[in-house]
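Justification of resources, computational component.

The compute hours requested in this renewal are based largely on the per-chain cost of generating structure records like the one below. Each record pairs the submitted sequence with a full C-alpha coordinate output. That output is archived, and it is also reused by downstream analysis tasks.
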Amino acid sequence: MITADLISRKRDGKVLSKDELIWFINGYLSGKVTEAQMTALLMAIFYTGMSEEETFALVDVMLNSGSTLDFSDSVAYVADKHSTGGIGDKVSLILAPIMAAAGLNIPMIAGRGLGFTGGTIDKLETIPGFDTAPALETFKDWVNKNGCAIIAQSDLICPTDKKIYALRDQTGTVPSVPLICGSIMSKKIAEGISGLVLDIKVGNGGFMKTMDQARDLGIWMKKIGTAFNIETDIVFTNMDQPLGRFAGLACEVQESVKALEGNCPKDLMEVTFELGAKLLIQAKLANHKDEAIQLQRSLIDSGQALTAFEIMVDAQGGRLDELGSNAKPDHEMVVHAAEDGIIEWMDTEAIGWALVDLGCGRKNPGDSLDNSAGIEFLKKVGEKTHKGDPVYHVFNSDPGRLDSASSKLEETFRTGESSPDSVIILENF
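The structure output for this chain reads:
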Protein backbone atom coordinates (compact mmCIF):
# COMPACT_ATOMS: atom_id res chain seq x y z
CA MET A 1 0.00 0.00 0.00
CA ILE A 2 1.08 3.58 -0.66
CA THR A 3 0.58 6.04 2.20
CA ALA A 4 0.03 9.09 -0.01
CA ASP A 5 -2.55 7.20 -2.08
CA LEU A 6 -4.64 6.35 0.98
CA ILE A 7 -4.49 9.97 2.15
CA SER A 8 -5.52 11.23 -1.30
CA ARG A 9 -8.41 8.80 -1.54
CA LYS A 10 -9.72 9.81 1.87
CA ARG A 11 -9.25 13.48 0.97
CA ASP A 12 -11.46 12.88 -2.08
CA GLY A 13 -14.20 11.26 0.03
CA LYS A 14 -13.45 7.64 -0.87
CA VAL A 15 -14.05 4.77 1.54
CA LEU A 16 -11.00 3.03 3.00
CA SER A 17 -11.21 -0.65 3.84
CA LYS A 18 -10.60 -2.08 7.29
CA ASP A 19 -7.34 -3.62 6.07
CA GLU A 20 -6.19 -0.25 4.75
CA LEU A 21 -6.99 1.48 8.05
CA ILE A 22 -5.17 -1.27 9.96
CA TRP A 23 -2.14 -0.91 7.69
CA PHE A 24 -2.07 2.88 8.01
CA ILE A 25 -2.55 3.01 11.78
CA ASN A 26 -0.11 0.18 12.50
CA GLY A 27 2.35 2.02 10.28
CA TYR A 28 1.93 5.12 12.39
CA LEU A 29 2.50 3.16 15.59
CA SER A 30 5.65 1.57 14.19
CA GLY A 31 7.03 4.81 12.77
CA LYS A 32 6.70 3.83 9.09
CA VAL A 33 3.89 6.38 8.69
CA THR A 34 5.06 9.84 9.75
CA GLU A 35 3.25 12.22 12.08
CA ALA A 36 2.74 14.58 9.13
CA GLN A 37 1.04 11.79 7.16
CA MET A 38 -1.17 10.85 10.10
CA THR A 39 -2.10 14.51 10.49
CA ALA A 40 -3.05 14.63 6.80
CA LEU A 41 -5.31 11.59 7.20
CA LEU A 42 -6.96 13.07 10.31
CA MET A 43 -7.62 16.31 8.46
CA ALA A 44 -9.05 14.38 5.49
CA ILE A 45 -11.38 12.50 7.87
CA PHE A 46 -12.32 15.79 9.52
CA TYR A 47 -13.45 17.27 6.20
CA THR A 48 -14.90 14.24 4.39
CA GLY A 49 -16.11 12.08 7.29
CA MET A 50 -16.20 8.30 7.39
CA SER A 51 -18.77 5.73 6.35
CA GLU A 52 -20.45 3.42 8.86
CA GLU A 53 -18.12 0.63 7.73
CA GLU A 54 -15.05 2.83 8.23
CA THR A 55 -16.19 4.10 11.64
CA PHE A 56 -16.84 0.58 12.94
CA ALA A 57 -13.46 -0.49 11.56
CA LEU A 58 -11.74 2.44 13.27
CA VAL A 59 -13.27 1.46 16.62
CA ASP A 60 -12.23 -2.15 16.09
CA VAL A 61 -8.67 -1.23 15.08
CA MET A 62 -8.23 1.01 18.13
CA LEU A 63 -9.78 -1.59 20.44
CA ASN A 64 -7.60 -4.46 19.22
CA SER A 65 -4.38 -2.45 19.28
CA GLY A 66 -4.06 -3.26 22.99
CA SER A 67 -5.39 -5.25 25.94
CA THR A 68 -8.98 -5.43 27.19
CA LEU A 69 -10.49 -6.00 30.61
CA ASP A 70 -12.78 -8.88 31.51
CA PHE A 71 -15.37 -8.37 34.24
CA SER A 72 -17.50 -11.39 33.32
CA ASP A 73 -16.86 -12.80 36.81
CA SER A 74 -18.24 -9.68 38.52
CA VAL A 75 -21.48 -10.09 40.47
CA ALA A 76 -22.11 -6.34 40.19
CA TYR A 77 -23.37 -4.50 37.13
CA VAL A 78 -20.30 -3.09 35.35
CA ALA A 79 -20.84 0.26 33.69
CA ASP A 80 -19.27 3.61 32.93
CA LYS A 81 -20.03 7.19 31.96
CA HIS A 82 -18.33 9.46 29.47
CA SER A 83 -18.62 13.15 28.60
CA THR A 84 -17.61 14.73 25.30
CA GLY A 85 -15.95 17.49 27.31
CA GLY A 86 -16.96 20.80 28.78
CA ILE A 87 -15.92 23.62 31.10
CA GLY A 88 -16.26 22.90 34.81
CA ASP A 89 -17.41 19.35 34.06
CA LYS A 90 -16.31 17.32 37.07
CA VAL A 91 -19.31 14.95 36.97
CA SER A 92 -17.13 11.82 36.72
CA LEU A 93 -15.54 12.60 40.09
CA ILE A 94 -18.98 12.75 41.71
CA LEU A 95 -20.86 10.09 39.78
CA ALA A 96 -18.36 7.23 40.03
CA PRO A 97 -18.41 7.05 43.87
CA ILE A 98 -22.21 7.49 43.97
CA MET A 99 -22.60 4.51 41.63
CA ALA A 100 -20.05 2.51 43.64
CA ALA A 101 -22.00 3.24 46.82
CA ALA A 102 -25.15 2.02 45.03
CA GLY A 103 -23.49 -1.33 44.26
CA LEU A 104 -22.26 -0.89 40.70
CA ASN A 105 -18.70 -1.46 39.50
CA ILE A 106 -17.28 1.53 37.59
CA PRO A 107 -13.95 0.91 35.78
CA MET A 108 -13.36 4.39 34.38
CA ILE A 109 -10.56 5.08 31.91
CA ALA A 110 -10.52 8.86 31.63
CA GLY A 111 -8.67 11.41 29.54
CA ARG A 112 -6.55 14.50 29.95
CA GLY A 113 -7.53 17.95 28.78
CA LEU A 114 -8.37 18.12 25.09
CA GLY A 115 -8.43 21.45 23.28
CA PHE A 116 -10.21 23.98 25.46
CA THR A 117 -11.87 21.37 27.71
CA GLY A 118 -10.57 20.04 30.99
CA GLY A 119 -9.46 16.48 31.68
CA THR A 120 -10.55 14.23 34.55
CA ILE A 121 -7.06 12.75 34.92
CA ASP A 122 -5.40 16.17 35.12
CA LYS A 123 -7.79 17.08 37.92
CA LEU A 124 -7.29 13.86 39.89
CA GLU A 125 -3.50 14.18 39.65
CA THR A 126 -3.69 17.35 41.75
CA ILE A 127 -4.31 14.98 44.69
CA PRO A 128 -0.80 14.22 46.04
CA GLY A 129 0.19 10.60 45.38
CA PHE A 130 -2.88 9.69 43.30
CA ASP A 131 -1.93 6.84 40.95
CA THR A 132 -3.54 7.02 37.51
CA ALA A 133 -1.27 4.45 35.84
CA PRO A 134 -1.51 1.10 37.66
CA ALA A 135 -1.11 -2.36 36.16
CA LEU A 136 -4.38 -3.54 34.61
CA GLU A 137 -4.82 -6.33 37.15
CA THR A 138 -4.40 -3.78 39.94
CA PHE A 139 -7.02 -1.57 38.29
CA LYS A 140 -9.42 -4.51 38.09
CA ASP A 141 -8.78 -5.39 41.74
CA TRP A 142 -9.51 -1.80 42.80
CA VAL A 143 -12.81 -1.85 40.93
CA ASN A 144 -13.89 -5.24 42.28
CA LYS A 145 -12.93 -4.34 45.86
CA ASN A 146 -13.99 -0.68 46.06
CA GLY A 147 -16.66 -0.33 43.38
CA CYS A 148 -14.83 2.28 41.31
CA ALA A 149 -11.43 3.39 40.10
CA ILE A 150 -10.40 6.10 37.66
CA ILE A 151 -7.18 5.74 35.68
CA ALA A 152 -5.53 7.25 32.62
CA GLN A 153 -5.26 5.55 29.31
CA SER A 154 -2.04 3.54 29.15
CA ASP A 155 0.09 1.99 26.44
CA LEU A 156 -1.78 -1.25 27.16
CA ILE A 157 -5.36 -0.05 26.55
CA CYS A 158 -6.05 1.28 23.05
CA PRO A 159 -2.49 2.56 22.47
CA THR A 160 -3.54 3.66 18.99
CA ASP A 161 -6.07 6.07 20.44
CA LYS A 162 -3.62 7.39 23.02
CA LYS A 163 -1.21 8.45 20.31
CA ILE A 164 -3.87 9.83 17.96
CA TYR A 165 -5.69 11.58 20.85
CA ALA A 166 -2.67 13.81 21.51
CA LEU A 167 -2.24 14.51 17.79
CA ARG A 168 -5.90 15.52 17.38
CA ASP A 169 -5.46 18.04 20.16
CA GLN A 170 -2.60 19.70 18.27
CA THR A 171 -4.14 19.64 14.78
CA GLY A 172 -7.62 21.09 15.22
CA THR A 173 -9.31 17.78 14.40
CA VAL A 174 -10.99 17.19 17.76
CA PRO A 175 -14.62 17.93 16.68
CA SER A 176 -14.84 15.05 14.15
CA VAL A 177 -17.72 12.63 14.73
CA PRO A 178 -15.95 9.44 13.55
CA LEU A 179 -12.75 10.36 15.41
CA ILE A 180 -14.73 11.10 18.59
CA CYS A 181 -16.59 7.79 18.19
CA GLY A 182 -13.39 5.85 17.65
CA SER A 183 -11.66 7.42 20.63
CA ILE A 184 -14.48 7.16 23.16
CA MET A 185 -16.02 3.86 22.22
CA SER A 186 -12.79 1.89 21.80
CA LYS A 187 -11.77 2.78 25.37
CA LYS A 188 -15.21 2.05 26.80
CA ILE A 189 -15.50 -1.32 25.04
CA ALA A 190 -12.00 -2.19 26.28
CA GLU A 191 -13.20 -1.69 29.87
CA GLY A 192 -15.37 -4.81 29.64
CA ILE A 193 -18.52 -2.94 30.64
CA SER A 194 -22.15 -3.97 30.17
CA GLY A 195 -23.66 -0.49 30.32
CA LEU A 196 -22.73 3.04 29.36
CA VAL A 197 -24.23 6.52 29.63
CA LEU A 198 -22.85 9.26 27.39
CA ASP A 199 -23.11 12.94 28.22
CA ILE A 200 -22.96 14.83 24.91
CA LYS A 201 -22.34 18.51 25.57
CA VAL A 202 -24.16 20.96 23.30
CA GLY A 203 -23.54 24.68 22.99
CA ASN A 204 -20.79 27.24 22.65
CA GLY A 205 -18.64 25.45 25.24
CA GLY A 206 -18.90 21.99 23.68
CA PHE A 207 -17.38 20.43 20.60
CA MET A 208 -20.93 19.94 19.31
CA LYS A 209 -22.30 23.46 18.86
CA THR A 210 -25.81 22.50 17.71
CA MET A 211 -28.36 19.82 18.56
CA ASP A 212 -28.20 18.51 14.98
CA GLN A 213 -24.46 17.88 15.37
CA ALA A 214 -25.00 16.34 18.79
CA ARG A 215 -27.80 14.03 17.60
CA ASP A 216 -25.61 12.86 14.72
CA LEU A 217 -22.89 11.94 17.21
CA GLY A 218 -25.43 10.29 19.51
CA ILE A 219 -26.78 8.10 16.71
CA TRP A 220 -23.29 6.87 15.88
CA MET A 221 -22.45 6.20 19.55
CA LYS A 222 -25.67 4.25 20.01
CA LYS A 223 -24.99 2.16 16.90
CA ILE A 224 -21.48 1.29 18.06
CA GLY A 225 -22.62 0.47 21.60
CA THR A 226 -25.34 -1.84 20.26
CA ALA A 227 -22.91 -3.54 17.86
CA PHE A 228 -20.60 -4.36 20.79
CA ASN A 229 -23.42 -5.48 23.13
CA ILE A 230 -23.21 -2.50 25.47
CA GLU A 231 -26.47 -0.98 26.69
CA THR A 232 -25.98 2.66 25.77
CA ASP A 233 -28.00 5.68 26.88
CA ILE A 234 -27.40 9.21 25.62
CA VAL A 235 -28.08 12.46 27.48
CA PHE A 236 -27.62 15.83 25.78
CA THR A 237 -26.71 18.58 28.24
CA ASN A 238 -26.29 22.35 27.94
CA MET A 239 -22.76 23.75 27.68
CA ASP A 240 -23.63 27.39 26.98
CA GLN A 241 -22.08 28.18 30.35
CA PRO A 242 -19.66 26.43 32.73
CA LEU A 243 -20.97 23.62 34.91
CA GLY A 244 -20.84 24.32 38.63
CA ARG A 245 -19.13 27.31 40.24
CA PHE A 246 -15.50 26.34 39.60
CA ALA A 247 -13.42 25.39 36.59
CA GLY A 248 -9.76 24.48 36.70
CA LEU A 249 -7.77 21.73 38.34
CA ALA A 250 -7.58 21.28 42.14
CA CYS A 251 -10.55 23.61 42.62
CA GLU A 252 -12.76 21.16 40.70
CA VAL A 253 -11.71 18.29 42.95
CA GLN A 254 -12.56 20.45 45.95
CA GLU A 255 -15.98 21.28 44.48
CA SER A 256 -16.56 17.57 43.84
CA VAL A 257 -15.87 16.77 47.49
CA LYS A 258 -18.35 19.46 48.53
CA ALA A 259 -20.90 17.91 46.17
CA LEU A 260 -20.45 14.52 47.82
CA GLU A 261 -20.95 16.27 51.16
CA GLY A 262 -24.29 17.55 49.87
CA ASN A 263 -23.22 21.13 49.19
CA CYS A 264 -23.17 21.72 45.46
CA PRO A 265 -24.67 23.95 42.73
CA LYS A 266 -27.98 22.77 41.34
CA ASP A 267 -26.85 22.54 37.71
CA LEU A 268 -23.94 20.22 38.50
CA MET A 269 -26.09 17.86 40.51
CA GLU A 270 -28.87 17.91 37.92
CA VAL A 271 -26.48 16.54 35.30
CA THR A 272 -24.96 14.05 37.75
CA PHE A 273 -28.33 12.70 38.88
CA GLU A 274 -29.66 12.46 35.30
CA LEU A 275 -26.69 10.36 34.18
CA GLY A 276 -26.71 8.30 37.36
CA ALA A 277 -30.41 7.54 36.91
CA LYS A 278 -29.70 6.00 33.50
CA LEU A 279 -27.09 3.65 35.00
CA LEU A 280 -29.23 2.69 38.01
CA ILE A 281 -32.16 1.83 35.74
CA GLN A 282 -29.85 -0.18 33.47
CA ALA A 283 -28.62 -2.08 36.54
CA LYS A 284 -32.24 -2.65 37.65
CA LEU A 285 -31.57 -0.92 40.95
CA ALA A 286 -34.32 1.61 40.21
CA ASN A 287 -37.51 1.37 38.19
CA HIS A 288 -37.74 4.97 37.07
CA LYS A 289 -35.93 8.29 37.11
CA ASP A 290 -37.47 9.73 40.29
CA GLU A 291 -36.63 6.59 42.26
CA ALA A 292 -33.07 6.64 40.90
CA ILE A 293 -32.54 10.28 41.84
CA GLN A 294 -33.87 9.67 45.34
CA LEU A 295 -31.45 6.76 45.76
CA GLN A 296 -28.53 8.98 44.75
CA ARG A 297 -29.60 11.70 47.17
CA SER A 298 -29.85 9.18 49.99
CA LEU A 299 -26.32 7.90 49.29
CA ILE A 300 -25.02 11.46 49.58
CA ASP A 301 -27.07 12.28 52.66
CA SER A 302 -25.89 9.12 54.44
CA GLY A 303 -22.22 9.85 53.68
CA GLN A 304 -21.81 6.61 51.70
CA ALA A 305 -20.97 8.38 48.44
CA LEU A 306 -18.25 10.50 50.06
CA THR A 307 -16.85 7.41 51.78
CA ALA A 308 -16.70 5.61 48.41
CA PHE A 309 -14.71 8.53 46.98
CA GLU A 310 -12.32 8.56 49.92
CA ILE A 311 -11.81 4.79 49.63
CA MET A 312 -11.07 5.14 45.90
CA VAL A 313 -8.56 7.94 46.48
CA ASP A 314 -6.87 6.07 49.33
CA ALA A 315 -6.62 2.84 47.30
CA GLN A 316 -4.98 4.75 44.46
CA GLY A 317 -2.40 6.23 46.83
CA GLY A 318 -3.92 9.69 47.04
CA ARG A 319 -3.64 11.95 50.08
CA LEU A 320 -6.83 13.95 49.96
CA ASP A 321 -6.04 15.85 53.17
CA GLU A 322 -3.03 17.44 51.42
CA LEU A 323 -4.98 18.72 48.43
CA GLY A 324 -5.61 22.24 49.75
CA SER A 325 -2.05 23.01 50.77
CA ASN A 326 -0.62 21.41 47.63
CA ALA A 327 -2.64 23.59 45.28
CA LYS A 328 -2.96 26.94 47.04
CA PRO A 329 -2.73 29.76 44.46
CA ASP A 330 -0.13 32.50 44.90
CA HIS A 331 -1.97 35.09 42.82
CA GLU A 332 -5.57 36.08 42.25
CA MET A 333 -7.60 38.67 40.41
CA VAL A 334 -11.25 39.65 40.06
CA VAL A 335 -13.06 40.42 36.80
CA HIS A 336 -15.85 42.95 37.37
CA ALA A 337 -19.11 43.74 35.60
CA ALA A 338 -18.96 46.93 33.52
CA GLU A 339 -22.67 47.75 33.92
CA ASP A 340 -25.91 46.85 35.68
CA GLY A 341 -28.04 44.06 34.28
CA ILE A 342 -28.55 40.33 34.03
CA ILE A 343 -25.87 37.98 32.75
CA GLU A 344 -27.53 36.86 29.51
CA TRP A 345 -24.63 35.19 27.67
CA MET A 346 -21.27 33.58 28.30
CA ASP A 347 -18.63 32.63 25.72
CA THR A 348 -17.86 29.30 27.31
CA GLU A 349 -15.28 28.16 24.76
CA ALA A 350 -13.35 31.41 25.27
CA ILE A 351 -13.48 30.76 29.02
CA GLY A 352 -11.97 27.34 28.29
CA TRP A 353 -9.09 28.86 26.34
CA ALA A 354 -8.56 31.38 29.16
CA LEU A 355 -8.25 28.41 31.52
CA VAL A 356 -5.57 26.99 29.22
CA ASP A 357 -3.79 30.35 29.41
CA LEU A 358 -3.99 30.22 33.20
CA GLY A 359 -2.17 26.88 33.24
CA CYS A 360 -5.09 24.42 33.37
CA GLY A 361 -4.39 23.01 29.90
CA ARG A 362 -1.61 22.36 27.44
CA LYS A 363 -0.83 24.50 24.44
CA ASN A 364 1.90 22.08 23.43
CA PRO A 365 2.59 18.43 24.28
CA GLY A 366 4.59 18.14 27.46
CA ASP A 367 3.50 21.51 28.87
CA SER A 368 3.34 21.49 32.66
CA LEU A 369 0.10 22.34 34.43
CA ASP A 370 -0.56 24.69 37.33
CA ASN A 371 -2.55 22.66 39.85
CA SER A 372 -3.63 25.81 41.67
CA ALA A 373 -5.12 27.50 38.59
CA GLY A 374 -8.81 28.05 38.06
CA ILE A 375 -11.83 30.32 37.95
CA GLU A 376 -14.68 30.75 40.40
CA PHE A 377 -17.87 31.90 38.69
CA LEU A 378 -19.45 34.39 41.07
CA LYS A 379 -22.17 35.19 38.54
CA LYS A 380 -23.69 32.93 35.90
CA VAL A 381 -26.31 33.20 33.16
CA GLY A 382 -29.62 34.53 34.47
CA GLU A 383 -28.14 36.16 37.58
CA LYS A 384 -28.37 39.88 38.32
CA THR A 385 -25.28 41.99 38.63
CA HIS A 386 -24.40 45.64 39.23
CA LYS A 387 -21.61 47.73 37.77
CA GLY A 388 -18.42 46.88 39.62
CA ASP A 389 -19.69 43.56 40.99
CA PRO A 390 -17.22 40.66 40.80
CA VAL A 391 -18.16 38.15 38.09
CA TYR A 392 -15.05 35.93 37.99
CA HIS A 393 -12.51 35.18 40.71
CA VAL A 394 -9.37 34.10 38.83
CA PHE A 395 -6.33 32.47 40.44
CA ASN A 396 -3.04 30.69 39.68
CA SER A 397 0.69 30.73 40.50
CA ASP A 398 1.94 32.87 37.59
CA PRO A 399 1.08 36.60 37.62
CA GLY A 400 1.93 37.05 33.93
CA ARG A 401 -0.44 34.30 32.82
CA LEU A 402 -3.03 35.56 35.31
CA ASP A 403 -3.03 39.06 33.78
CA SER A 404 -3.30 37.69 30.25
CA ALA A 405 -6.17 35.31 31.04
CA SER A 406 -8.08 37.88 33.11
CA SER A 407 -7.92 40.40 30.27
CA LYS A 408 -9.44 37.85 27.90
CA LEU A 409 -12.14 36.93 30.41
CA GLU A 410 -13.48 40.49 30.37
CA GLU A 411 -14.91 39.74 26.91
CA THR A 412 -16.51 36.40 27.80
CA PHE A 413 -19.84 37.58 29.24
CA ARG A 414 -22.56 40.06 28.37
CA THR A 415 -25.22 41.73 30.47
CA GLY A 416 -28.70 42.65 29.32
CA GLU A 417 -32.24 43.16 30.54
CA SER A 418 -33.71 39.70 30.08
CA SER A 419 -33.12 36.43 31.87
CA PRO A 420 -32.65 33.60 29.34
CA ASP A 421 -33.89 30.09 29.91
CA SER A 422 -31.23 27.96 31.57
CA VAL A 423 -32.32 24.44 30.63
CA ILE A 424 -29.60 21.96 31.65
CA ILE A 425 -30.95 18.63 30.36
CA LEU A 426 -31.74 19.27 26.72
CA GLU A 427 -32.79 15.84 25.50
CA ASN A 428 -32.51 12.09 26.10
CA PHE A 429 -31.81 9.51 23.43
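Residues 327-416 form a domain with the Aldehyde Oxidoreductase; domain 3 fold (CATH 3.90.1170.30). The CA atoms of residues 327 and 371 lie 6 Å apart.
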